[in-house]
Amino acid sequence: MASTSKEKEVSSLPKEDGSQHDDAMQEDPESYKAVEVWDIDFILEKLRHTECSLLLERTFDSNTLLHVAAILGHDQTVEAILSIQQCQELLTAKNSSGDLPLHVAANAGHLPIVVKLLNRSFQHFKAQNSDAAIAEHSAMVDFVVMSHQYYELLMAKNSNGDLPLHVAANAGHFSIVRHLVNLSDEYHREFLRVQKSNGDHLLHLAANAGLSSIVQHFIMLSHQYQELLMVQNSNGDLPLHLAANTGHLSIVQHLVKSCHQRQEHLMVQNSNGDRPLHVAANAGHLSIVQHLVKFSYRCQELLTPKNSGDNIPLPYPPVDANAGYQPSVDLSDQKLQDRYTSKLLRVENEEGNTPLHLALIKKYEEEDSNLKTNYHEVAKFLIEKDPDACTDLNEANKDPLDLAIKAQDKELQQLMSNHLGFSEALAWGDAEMQKERNNSNMPELERVPQKSKDKVESMDPELYKAVKSKDIDFIKTQDPEHSALSDKTPELNSILHLAAASSDDDHQFVQAILEIQLLQKLVTEKNSKGDLPLHVAANAGNMKIVELLVKWSNGQLQDHSTCGPQWEKNMEGNTPLHLALIKKFQEGRNLALKAKYNEVTRFLVKNGPEVSVYYPNKERKSPLYLAAEAGDEELVKLMIDTVPLLPYGKSIIHAAIYYLMTITNLPYGKSVVHAAIKGSFTARKIDILSTVLTKLPHLIKEQVDTKMTPLSYASSIGYCDGVRYLFRESPDCAYKSDEDGFFPIHIASKKGHVKVVEFFLKQYPDMSELLNREGQNILHVAALSGKAKMVAYMLKRNELEMLINGKDKKGNTPLHLASMVKHPVVVSNLTWDKRVNLSSLNILNMTAYDVTLEFRDIFAFREQLTWLALRYVGARRAPKSVRRKKPQSSKLKKSDILNEYKDLANTLVVVATLVITVTFAAAFTMPGGYNGSGGVATFLEKHMFHLFAICNSIAMYSAITVVVALIWAQQRDLGLFDSAFRFAVPMLGVTLTMVSMAFMASNYLVLRNLHWLAYLVLIIGSFFILALSILFFPLCLPSSPQNLIARYIIYFPFYLVVKASWSDADDWKEE
């Protein structure tokens, strides 16, 4: 019998690895061929006469006859096979992919066969499904009355973890899926909630494949399956994310409308931090973006400040799922709509991208012109909907305008440019903390746009003069509706800003302005710096004007629950209280001005206590932080005492402290306690620190994001009194390390605070054994940081002797580390201690001298001094047998090194040549000239002339020798250059010394008759010749003299050079 196409399909069933078998039949090929050609009589006859051996016969893919019949859609064959009692076990037989016949029938889309398979299940099936992997994969349910065995069959999974329902949905067989979903209410529907291995359940599959009918059916049963709308898969995607990504608008509409938690629904993030709106914008689906924006109004309360953690939804009244969308606010006001919408449009994913960023990025990356057009339209819609989003920066520090320029989209560039003139001030406003307040859902004060670049504001000159001179009569005679009273200066200052800037106590002029009803709105208008008139008044320290503005501002705000002007921030993130505090602490010794600002700050604290602790500026400093930092104990007490209680008895101070200790870029250790420590240290009194910790005792053990405790911070700034206080209050903090493994004693050692280290060792001597994550003790840390005084202190303490040659995890001793980072003073201190082992090896088999040579740069003075410090005490290299080889990469730098050497040699040649020129000329122009025509020098018999002639000759010939030696150094050989350089430098030192002595002698000869001047010349010359000798002396001596006295002689000039050119404070300042 010739093979048909179906025969090929069966006989070529794929193996598990994807390959195919040449022969798909083993024991009974006639039976399989009978199935292929629907030979029912043959099959029945075969089944009646076989002794169940057919049940055991399979293809190489473990497919039974029932699998093959189900794949081919031969329902009569399936009926014939299932009519035999012995064949019932085939219902639970799996092939190599873990598929039951039910799975393969569902995958092939044969609904009648699925129904037959389910209806033919027997009681013994239940006994077979103890295996957890029973297949629940092909959706085939008819209108028959189902038993529990059907439920267990439907719950069976194949090797991929798919139920029959999933298989049918993946294959797009809607009729099978519909039958499964339409199971009678009398029986279980838990299989609808079962998720695949990747977390997808049926609704995910339907949303991704665009199966609108299945989604609609779920919507009809939303009261039963509401939770499925909020289930996320392994990528964090909701069904809404998948539908938004694939562009199925009708499904998006159904999902959004039916969810009872619409606000949470739109704000759910996937693993990339993308909301559904991000996904739709990234995919370029304009209609879906528009629809999601429409439903965003009620989601605005969900947003929390950037990097603030979890979204916390506010309570809402219950929503009727069948009633459609019911807005909780009156959206008739278009401005209110736009403000609510912008909350969703400007939310960022983990990379800091808003939906607008994503649309522009995809437009730039996409090559298909049609898709570029789609992304263009999405971006255009988002810009028009919220122009302020044009100034948002992502994590790459790019705003949408930058991306539009990169994408070369001139239309979008023009569109953004048109909007930026009036939205930039708002865009850079710091609204994060405003959202965290209890009234974050209330309208904000009106913001005045930043001045346009195309049009500069100007105030009427007569009005400006009247304001400056406080001419009340002029203001009262003006008609508010038709005069220039609303004019602004180029910096967008109104007349109220100018009046509030007055530093005297006269507030009558401001009162007169505010009594004009049409000008009362000026109270809530900002200038180009984001300052309200209240900011200006607080900065000027005028108490009466501040009181007046607060009073009128609260009256201007009809909704008394709305936050007042004392909560508002300018472009620097400063509230009026910030400005008053900054000015107060800047005044220095002017007690009168300090008193004025103190009065203003106390008033603002009492009228807006939350601002004190809950509103950091862009430098991340709250008013409480500023007060603690400045050491103002009285003001700190006032701020803490006046903070009201939040619900459940929690003080707002706790929330503020938590915020301050978790946000990034806070100075001084990122804690109010750390600010208090600095304030106490600056003011030289412990009261401010005691005040904060008395009110907030739990903070003494708090570790901020660098894991630094208050004790660690006090140790880092060397505040010994603070260390004693904190140690007394919480001794166990001395054994708490920061994120780098540094304990407080390590930090003090690193900073060079000897008294703090001494205190710790006195209290707990065993703290000397504490190690950081690199296995380094306190002497390691001091040596690595270049703290020579700290190293000297430790070397003097006999109980710390075990630290001297201690090794870290890399085998480095303190001497290794000091040599590695080139601290010559520290190296010098260590090498002259007899207990230091100069031959100690690290894990790379390198001594400290090896380390110096490894990292040595002969052109750097620090490296040279460190090398000399080791050389003069006889430090040796490791034996060649254990010394590690230099890395191959070092050879690659040979040409660069030779070029540097050549430049250095050329410089020395120039100097030597100049000396030759000068000394040669001096030989023929003798001091005093010649005696007669015989050419004999006039001063030939004078001793100083003899000195001149000898020194000049030595200088001449030594300079010539230097030039010749350096000519050899030009041969591009590192060894030859090193030898030539070692010879030339000392010779050049001799040359310069001799030239100096010759000059001194010649001056003395011509000035000898004026004794005081001649002797002064000798003294000056002798002093500088001595200095020159000291500088050159270390370079001219042997590398490691054996005699101890010789070492001391060599070391003395070296030590003078080091001390003259270096200091402990200069040694390697902390980054």
TrEMBL record:
It is a multi-pass membrane protein. The keyword RNA-binding does not apply. Its main location: membrane. Residues 1-24 have a biased composition (Basic and acidic residues). One of its GO terms (cellular component) is plasma membrane. Keywords: ANK repeat, Membrane, Repeat, Transmembrane, Transmembrane helix. Residues 900-1005 form the PGG domain. Residues 1-28, 436-458 are annotated as: Disordered. PROSITE patterns: ANK_REP_REGION, ANK_REPEAT. ANK repeats lie at residues 97-130, 160-182, 235-257, 272-294, 529-551, 740-772. The keyword Nuclease does not apply. The chain crosses the membrane at residues 904-924, 944-969, 981-1006, 1012-1037, 1044-1062. It is found in: Membrane. It holds the Pfam family Ank. PANTHER family: PROTEIN ACCELERATED CELL DEATH 6-LIKE, PROTEIN PHOSPHATASE 1 REGULATORY SUBUNIT. This is PGG domain-containing protein. It comes from Quercus rubra (Northern red oak).
